[in-house]
Design goal:
The complex is a heterotrimer of chains A (299), B (260) and C (447).
Chain A (H helix, E strand, L loop, with lengths): L2 H25 L3 H22 L4 H24 L5 H22 L8 H6 L9 E4 L2 E5 H19 L1 H9 L1 H6 L4 H40 L5 H26 L3 H19 L5 H9 L11
Antiparallel strand pairs in A: 1-2
Helix pairs in contact in A: 1-6, 1-9, 1-10, 2-3, 2-4, 2-9, 3-4, 3-9, 6-9, 9-10, 9-11, 10-11
Chain B lengths: L8 E10 L2 E11 L3 E6 L6 H9 L6 E6 L2 E2 L7 E4 L13 H7 L13 H13 L15 H14 L4 E5 L7 H16 L3 E5 L6 H4 L2 E6 L1 E7 H4 L2 H8 L2 H15 L6
Parallel strand pairs in B: 3-8, 3-9, 6-7, 7-8
Antiparallel strand pairs in B: 1-2, 1-4, 4-5, 9-10
Helix pairs in contact in B: 2-3, 2-4, 3-4
Chain C lengths: L11 H4 L6 H26 L5 H20 L4 H25 L4 H25 L10 H4 L7 H20 L1 H9 L1 H6 L4 H23 L4 H15 L3 H25 L5 H19 L5 H31 L8 H7 L4 H13 L3 E3 L5 E3 L1 H24 L4 H11 L5 H11 L23
Antiparallel strand pairs in C: 1-2
Helix pairs in contact in C: 2-7, 2-10, 2-11, 2-12, 3-4, 3-5, 3-10, 3-11, 4-5, 4-10, 7-10, 10-11, 11-12, 11-13, 12-13, 14-16, 14-17, 17-18, 17-19
Classes of the chains: A mainly alpha (299), B alpha/beta (260), C mainly alpha (447).
Chain lengths: 299, 260, 447
């Protein structure tokens, strides 16, 4: 398989995995929490590297999961016991964790196979060569395996927990009244976001993970009113961004991850303007019609 | 009553919509001077929206508002606004006196400092609502009734003749309620016009001179004795209005494609 | 004189404070200025619940920085600043447009602008890097900040920008205050609210642009949020909050510079953030009044006071039953009257003993002292007055009032007590037909 194909596949898998959990983040108005977690997992990854002395995925995922949950807990604790407003709780927590991560990376620059900038925008271009050798056989790029597994896991999570995720996103009060453990699902979602983040980290880096989590999801949000369709559309938009991004990056000889983010943004703008249901253009034309008086519209 | 003087508030054919759904439709009303007016209607009837539309805080789909004969946009300062208590975060780091002083900002030039006279007026306003001893108290430490009084004092500090209040009696204790009513009566004696969004129908005849019944459209407006009737109340709160809200819902769901 | 020479040179961690090196002075000045401006303007962002706006805007600055370089080929600080400001501004407008005209929520809009603009910035940055233009080296310092790369001109520009910012805040202080507290009211009195909000956003953009060199794009958000959040714990006065926040920001800048000086490989940005967060943690914990420790101590004091008063009242009750107010009572008996665990009871009794309100007999029983009897009488009076009030005025059944009275009696002041007595016409008996001890000044309490 050609390099381009591998890169696009890896990018698509990363986008798909992110889009699945990202839709719920967007609906729960926790998009910035996604931003926070994708930054905050950094120290977890570095510590995992230092302890495991390898780039094995398992320690990294554990490190990321731990930091993701820590971020969620700390944010909550600051809000509740520190009486701090929610946006500030997020801001204080994740910036500190990310700062610690960068310091660790700088301090252990020789021992850890990460560099600070890679953390930000990943190295997807070289991913195809980073293959998984199992018993001497070339199983293909590691990233494909890792991201493939994560995408599958996210899919299972979303399918199995569909009803609970849906109701806890739209009406937590009613969910609680029905006996659903709202807190549990919140932390489950945060955990899956953490895993997804770290899986995509190596390919696209921290900031671009945020783009993949929320931009395709918001694009889908503007195109449909049905959750199931939103999930499917978000994945489709993500894949389109991956493919388009690769093309743009090849054209400019620049960062593929950056290009993917830009393309996803462009798709959003197109949807924002031209969406048949929620787009600005159609809304403008609708407003030019006189408002229908309540009595006249009676059936 | 001098008929040639322009009325404090005149609303003509006012329509306000939110995302294609009408919230106020074709409202036409004139508020007279020296009058306490209750604005009543069920939830979602557009009462708060009416107040905001008069103040220019929400865009009008059509219609116009004039205050003392002039377009509302030019004479903002002549109307004092007492918003709902929930509209601000009371944890803001400021004192009661400070909030009341904000009522003077319309009279202080941009970037100017408040003068001694402004401070005096602010203190005096606080005193009129019985809160002078709380002048330096943090607003987060005030009770609901006290916060409401601070908002009222802020409006008084503007020294205008027209007051628009959004649910000032909501969630206040009995003593505060009495104090507010006394204040309103005082204002009326001075010839001011006070329109109040009010939710407690029982107290309307006792506290107010006129009443405006509103549910998307204006149902009735006039002196309490003749307007606050069972028939009008039924029209405002009764079953017929379910049809209006239902249609509004249909409209919103089908959006612009409702037009054939 | 020079006899000391190199041999007596101070170790770096001390040498810093001599401020001998002009470079050190320069960098310190830059970081402190940034800390002050970001801290000051951050207060308004925080109070308007837009703490994360700074995060989004900081990330959005990157494409502007790169574009400025691409267009002019230089890294002149004024050009870079202009590029950053233009880019931030575009981001701010984008956020506004998205949240206003689509159904996307503002919070999502922030995240999208943050990541897409940053992505565009990375795209441009890598494009520049791959184009082999030698002059671009150092452009990537804007990611995490490298204060040591700051030159005279950089700091000079910074200083002017910071001065302008602080002047603006001082000038428009009351306008910023009212727009942050109640924007609808501000509009209703005719203030140009949109313009004022725009001005606030512009100052935030300026603060971000100023801070980029030292802190970098990624962590700039922290300098806008963390010092302001820290300052809030210490004061309830907006003006003092702004000053304190600026001070905390300056302190963070200084510490960040210091650490960066000691370890040149360390980027300044993260250390400034760590410093700011340490200040935050200290504020969260130790600020008087709003701090966690203060609140915990207050709760503990209240709980203890309640426990003590309850025990005094119980001993008084025991005295009434036994016929003598200073009758002794064993701990077991006390625990029968009042459900309380033995350990807490012991400690409460010990404290009461220490205050001379209770004395311990040789047989391990406890009795009220004279002072204890007086206090017990008073507490009992308040309790029974309140019970009576609840039954008579609120018509609550007598068997329900005891628990309510238990809660309220600890907070009744003498003024309230006088009003209770007046409302109840100076009663003699409570709902359970127990005698209400006379009030202060009503003669000696019968023992």
């Amino acid at each position: 398989m050609s390099n381009a194909a591998w890169v696009i596949l890896i990018g698509s898998l990363a986008s798909a995995a992110c889009a699945l959990v990202g839709c719920f983040l967007v609906l729960r108005k926790q998009a910035m929490m996604g931003d926070a977690i994708s930054h905050a997992v950094l120290p977890g990854i570095v510590i995992a590297f230092l302890i495991a002395e390898s780039r094995a995925p398992a320690p990294m995922l554990i490190g990321a999961g731990a930091l993701g949950l820590l971020t969620a807990f700390t944010t909550e604790a600051l809000e509740r016991y520190g009486r701090l407003q929610p946006d500030a709780s997020i801001g204080v927590t994740f910036t500190w964790l990310f700062a610690v991560g960068v310091i660790l990376v700088s301090a252990f620059a020789g021992h850890v196979d990460l560099d600070a900038e890679c953390v930000l925008y990943g190295e997807i271009a070289s991913a195809p060569w980073d293959v998984w050798l199992w018993g001497g056989a070339d199983m293909g790029p590691r990233a494909v395996w890792i991201l493939g597994t994560i995408t599958a896991a996210n899919l299972v999570f979303v399918l199995l927990g569909y009803k609970q995720l849906k109701i806890t996103s739209f009406d937590p009060a009613m969910a609680a009244a029905l006996g659903i453990n709202v807190t549990l699902w919140h932390y489950l979602l945060m955990a899956f976001v953490s895993f997804t983040t770290v899986g995509a980290f190596e390919s696209v880096g921290a900031i671009l993970v945020v783009a993949m989590l929320i931009v395709p999801a918001n694009t889908a949000y503007l195109l449909t009113d049905r959750l199931s369709r939103m999930l499917a559309l978000a994945v489709a938009m993500g894949i389109a961004s991956a493919a388009g991004g690769y093309g743009l990056a090849a054209l400019l000889d620049a960062s593929i991850a950056g290009a993917m983010a830009v393309v996803s943004g462009a798709l959003f703008v197109v949807a924002a303007l031209f969406s048949p249901t929620h787009g600005v253009i159609f809304g403008y034309f609708a407003r030019r019609h006189a408002l229908v008086a309540p009595d006249e519209a009676a059936p | 009553m001098d008929d040639t003087r322009p009325a404090p508030i005149e609303v003509h054919d006012l329509t306000v919509a939110y995302r294609h759904r009408p919230v106020l439709w074709d409202v036409d009303v004139t508020f007279p001077e020296g009058n306490l007016i209750a604005v009543c209607g069920p939830n979602g009837a557009g009462k708060s929206t009416l107040i905001k539309a008069i103040l220019g805080l929400v865009p009008l789909a059509s219609g116009r508002v004039s205050i003392f004969g002039k377009p509302a946009g030019e004479v903002r300062k002549l109307v004092a606004y007492v918003p709902q208590r929930e509209s601000v975060d009371w944890d803001f780091p400021t004192t009661a006196l400070d909030v009341v002083l904000m009522g003077r900002y319309g009279h202080i030039p941009l970037f100017g400092r408040p003068r001694a006279r402004d401070w005096e007026i602010a203190r005096h306003s606080l005193d009129k609502v019985g809160m002078l001893e709380f002048a330096d108290r943090q607003i987060s430490q005030l009770s609901g009734g006290q916060q409401q009084r601070v908002f009222l004092a802020r409006a008084l500090a503007q020294q205008t003749r027209v007051y628009l209040m959004d649910e000032p009696f909501a969630g206040v204790d009995a003593a505060t309620e009495k104090a507010i009513v006394a204040l309103l009566r005082d204002l009326r004696e001075q010839g001011c016009t006070v329109a109040v969004v009010h939710h407690d129908l029982q107290s309307v005849p006792e506290y107010f001179d006129s009443v405006m019944l509103l549910n998307l459209r204006m149902v009735a407006f006039g002196p309490v004795e003749s307007t606050f009737t069972t028939e009008n109340l039924n029209k405002t709160y009764g079953g017929r209005l379910n049809l209006l809200t239902e249609v509004g819902e249909k409209l919103r769901r089908r959006q612009w494609s409702a037009r054939r | 004189m020079n006899g000391a020479g190199a041999a007596a040179a101070l170790p770096p961690w001390l040498d810093f404070f001599t401020f001998r090196e002009p470079n050190v002075r320069l960098i310190l000045a830059g970081c402190v200025l940034l800390g002050v401006s970001a801290g000051a303007i951050g207060c308004f962002a925080l109070l308007r619940k837009r703490a994360l706006l700074g995060d989004a805007l900081a990330h959005a600055a990157l494409p502007g920085v790169c574009a400025a370089f691409m267009l002019t080929g230089t890294k002149d600080p004024v050009i870079i600043l202009a590029g950053a400001v233009a880019s931030c501004w575009t981001g701010a407008i984008a956020i506004d447009l998205i949240s206003r005209y689509t159904r996307v929520k503002e919070e999502s809009a922030l995240g999208m602008v943050l990541s897409v603009f940053f992505g565009a910035g990375i795209l441009l940055l890598t494009y520049i890097q791959h184009s082999g233009n030698a002059a671009q080296a150092g452009l990537d310092k804007f990611l995490f900040g490298q204060a040591s790369a700051m030159l005279d001109r950089d700091v000079g520009t910074l200083a002017i920008a910071a001065a302008l910012m602080l002047a603006a805040v001082a000038l428009a202080y009351k306008e910023f205050k009212v727009v942050s507290f109640d924007p609808q009211f501000a509009r209703s009195i005719g203030l140009p609210t949109r313009s004022i909000e725009t001005a606030l956003a512009t100052l935030t953009v300026l603060a971000v642009a100023i801070g980029l060199q030292a802190v970098g794009v990624v962590l700039m958000a922290a300098m806008l949020v963390t010092p302001a959040a820290s300052a809030r714990y210490w004061t309830d006065h907006l003006g003092r909050m702004v000053l304190l926040s600026g001070a905390f920001g300056a302190l963070s800048g200084a510490i960040g510079t210091y650490v960066s000086y000691l370890g040149p490989r360390m980027p300044t940005g993260p250390w400034m953030v760590v410093a700011a967060t340490l200040v935050f943690t200290a504020s969260l914990l130790f600020a008087p009044g709003r701090g966690l420790v203060a609140r915990v101590l207050l709760m503990r004091r209240l709980r203890r006071k309640t426990a003590e008063e309850n025990i005094l009242r119980t001993l008084y009750l025991n005295g009434e039953r036994a016929g003598a107010m200073d009758a002794p009572c064993s701990m077991t008996r006390l625990m029968q009257y009042r459900a309380m665990n033995a350990w807490a009871l012991e400690r409460t009794l010990a404290r009461l003993k220490g205050r001379g309100l209770v004395r311990e007999g040789e047989d391990g029983t406890f009795a009220l002292t004279g002072a204890g009897v007086e206090r017990g009488a008073r507490l009992t009076r308040l309790h029974r007055l309140w019970e009576l009030y609840l039954t008579r005025k609120l018509e609550i059944a007598p068997d329900h009032v005891h628990d309510d009275a238990e809660e309220i009696e600890h907070i009744i002041t003498p003024e309230l007590e006088a009003r209770l007595v007046a409302a109840l016409n100076d009663p003699a008996e409570d709902p359970h037909a127990q005698r209400i001890p006379p009030g202060p000044g009503a003669g000696n309490v019968v023992v």
